[in-house]
Amino acid sequence: MRIVLVGPPGAGKGTQAQFIASHLSIPKISTGDIFRANVSGGTELGRKAKEFMDRGDLVPDEVTIAMVRDRLAEDDARDGFLLDGFPRNVPQAETLKKILDEFGVRLDIVLELVVDEDEVVRRLSGRRTCTKCGKIWHVDFDDKKDDICDDCGGQLFQRDDDKEEVVRHRLEVYQEQTAPIVRFYGDEGILARIDAAGPVDEVTARALSALRPSEK
């Protein structure tokens, strides 16, 4: 199967992508993974991307798209893949369609993880990271009453990008830039909306259930 996974920050995309890809025995492909592989491998595209990354600039679409094209052409992706983090906007979605047309294949389904904005804020703003071991705790889910890591005794802190005002801004950016691809894929007739609230295993079960009519 060829799947795209979309959803706002805090929807659990990374976790669900791993479970779904493992269940279907297809590679999970994220732009982050692609960037790291190209940079560490010293590819021409990796060198180009590193120039922008070292300056703190966003990697241009044409470089990102070229990396995605190369990755989708690899042997392990020929019979299917799960894309996480790409496409991020309608132009990228249109380009992905053209790439797959060149390969003679198409997307089977786009899974949208749907979660209430206040729940996203609760999930992300409640996270605390250990300064020593890096483990992430949650003030609600882990019933944390102090700012000390139970594993190593390190001090816990709230990352800047987990602060409520930053989380809400990230959600605004998502709605402006990425949410339109939901309408794009809805018009394509391959969109399935998944309730991303509740325990991880329940969300995974909903996602797998939505995939079954599309499984080949």
Q: What's the SSE blueprint?
A:
Blueprint: E1 2-6, H1 13-24, E2 28-30, H2 31-41, H3 44-54, H4 61-72, E3 81-84, H5 90-103, E4 109-114, H6 117-125, E5 127-130, E6 136-138, E7 156-157, H7 164-177, H8 180-188, E8 191-195, H9 200-211
Parallel strand pairs: 1-3, 1-4, 2-3, 4-8
Antiparallel strand pairs: 5-6, 5-7
Short description:
This protein has 216 residues and is of the alpha/beta class. 48% of the residues lie in helices and 15% in strands.
The main sheet orders its strands as 2-3-1-4-8
Number of strand elements: 8
Helix content: 40-55%
Mass-distribution shape: globular
SSE order, as H and E? Answer: EHEHHHEHEHEEEHHEH
Low-confidence stretches: none
Structural class: alpha/beta
Alpha carbon gyration radius: 18 Å
Report the average pLDDT across residues.
91
Distance between the termini: 7 Å
Major sheet attributes: 5 strands, parallel
Number of helices: 9
Fraction in beta strands? 5-15%
Task: Please explain how this structure is put together.
With 216 residues, the protein is an alpha/beta fold. It contains 9 helices and 8 strands. The protein has a 5-stranded parallel β-sheet with strand order 2-3-1-4-8. Strand 5 and strand 6 (136-138) form a beta hairpin. Helix 1 packs across helix 9, helix 2 crosses helix 4 and helix 3 runs antiparallel to helix 4 (61-72). The longest helix is centred in the middle third of the chain and has 14 residues, at 90-103. The radius of gyration is 18 Å and the shape is globular. The N and C termini lie close together (7 Å).
